[in-house]
Specification:
Strands 4-11-10-9-8-7-6-5 form an 8-stranded parallel beta sheet. The chain is an alpha/beta fold. It has a single domain, classed as TIM Barrel, CATH 3.20.20.70. Strand 10, helix 12 and strand 11 form a beta-alpha-beta unit. The radius of gyration is 19 Å and the shape is globular. Helix 4 packs across helix 5. The protein is built from 13 helices and 12 strands.
Length: about 350
């Protein structure tokens, strides 16, 4: 078989290499997976209307996000359990993100501790994804670990008052990690359990419908790190996010893994951009598989996109090299599309380049 030349071809390789239950965990979504499919399909319903004779020169893909310079506007979205895809897990992903010159948003449910990822990839720019826990003392302990490891921002996921029901996982009986694999960022320290921190109990992630804007305020007072609010889908919530001092808004339907029949993320993007009014950056994920998708999202007002499943497919296909290739493919495609649209950089894109068809 030839080496993958598109992101979707990496998925085919990953499907062959992963145990079926693990592939289904990464690929699957909530309910009938209507939103999973909609995320990709929505990009196909958007057409690009290029400009010509712009004299733009070679396109530039670099930008700056919350003080971090990136070579490409494609970030690594937070996804759990990377060691299910490759023994090196999040270490390999972080090294690949560093090589690509982009940001890795590390999941709270990572299978490698944030300290170990930072040590394995010292050149990586890491943001840390967080579910606010009802036990705010434990939440603070996790935040302190992220700070100490050098994470440059907190990405707070707010679309999960309960866990999504994913029928594939129910059917496969997939409800726990294999022996010897745990969510290392949830391991208690000595002070938590009066025992050996290295062998401390690993807490479960608690999803709570009691989490509110008050908890965002508590977190804001707890840390000086920028807070990115992930899972915003309604413009009213985007406006509230500004009132509560967040540093960026992240449009996401959790890859279709929480509430099924939610609209595609890119369809929600323009309203969120309008609600924010340029006050803070807007990120988006869900369904990005091509450089054309990236350019469409940027033209509609996103500051950057994030990709989750494509990174997992690259990791499962060929470890760190696979993730490097996935991120490299997307950057190459973005450069190509910018040139064909007459744009000198990602900052030259505007809504008029996109038409709904």
């Amino acid at each position: 078989m030839h080496a993958p030349v598109t992101v979707r071809e990496f998925e085919a390789v990953a499907r062959d290499r992963l145990p079926p239950a693990h592939y289904d965990y990464f690929a699957g979504g909530a309910g009938d997976e209507i939103t999973v499919r909609a995320n990709e399909a929505a990009y196909a319903r958007l057409a690009l209307v290029p400009r010509v004779l712009r004299g733009a020169g070679g396109p530039r893909t670099g930008t700056t996000l919350l003080g971090s310079r990136v070579a490409t506007p494609v970030l690594v979205a937070p996804t759990a359990f990377h060691r299910l895809a490759d023994p090196e897990g999040e270490k390999a992903t972080a090294r690949a993100a560093a090589a690509a010159g982009t940001i890795m948003i590390m999941s709270m449910a990572a299978t490698v501790a944030v300290e170990d990822v930072a040590a394995a990839a010292p050149d990586a720019t890491l943001w840390f994804q967080l579910y606010i826990q009802p036990d705010m003392a434990f939440t603070e302990a996790v935040v302190r670990r992220a700070e100490a490891a050098g994470c440059a921002a907190l990405v707070v996921t707010v679309d999960s008052p309960v866990r999504g029901r994913r029928d594939r996982d129910v059917r496969n009986g997939f409800d726990d990690l294999p022996e010897g694999m745990r969510c290392e960022n949830l391991r208690e320290s000595d002070s938590d359990n009066d025992g050996d921190g290295a062998a401390g109990r690993v807490r479960p992630i608690v999803m709570s419908p009691e989490i509110s804007w008050e908890h965002v305020d508590l977190l804001r007072r707890m840390t000086g790190l920028p807070i990115v609010l992930k899972g915003v889908m309604h413009p009213a919530d985007a406006r509230l996010a500004l009132e509560h001092g967040v540093s960026a808004v992240y449009v996401s339907n959790h890859g279709g893994r929480q509430l099924d029949t939610v609209p595609a993320a890119v369809e929600l993007l323009p309203e969120i951009v309008a609600a924010v009014g340029g006050a803070v950056p807007v990120l988006v994920d869900g369904g990005v598989r091509r450089g054309t998708d990236v350019v469409k999202a940027l033209a509609l007002g996103a500051s950057a996109v994030a990709v989750g499943r494509p990174v997992i497919w690259g990791l499962a296909a060929d470890g760190e090299r696979g993730v490097r290739r996935v991120l490299g493919l997307l950057r190459e495609e973005v450069e190509h599309v910018l040139a064909l649209c007459g744009a000198a950089s990602v900052h030259d894109l505007e809504p008029g380049l996109v038409r709904r068809c």
